[in-house]
Amino acid sequence: MEHGKSNCQTCAGYIRLCSGLDFFPADAEVRKLLIERLHALAKNHDHAQAMIAKWLNTQTAAPKVANLVDLAGEVRAEHQTLPDGCNVCRGELWIVVETGAKRCSCARGLALKAKDRAREDERRAKNAA
Question: Are 12 and 32 in contact (CB under 8 A)?
């Protein structure tokens, strides 16, 4: 999103969710820094929410700025922008067919296929270099 936004109420709410974790900063300036960094590192508020949700589901100590940097890379914002699944795939990544598993033919499956192709092209380009 943007830098220097320590007053974003949405990101403040996400950081506040961490207040029950061990070592949550008592200093208001440190909390403002966490809010600012979350806002700057996340691609959008859905991404910020996914970052904090992952942290809350996997950690017992409050995040530090360095943790937010790592989380931004680990948690993909793209999965939030995929279309909804159809009644065949029900939003799952793969559907089971006689020969194994494949992507669905709905809009979500097509978007996932496009991401697969992009990753494969990126892998090939790295190997060629």
Answer: no
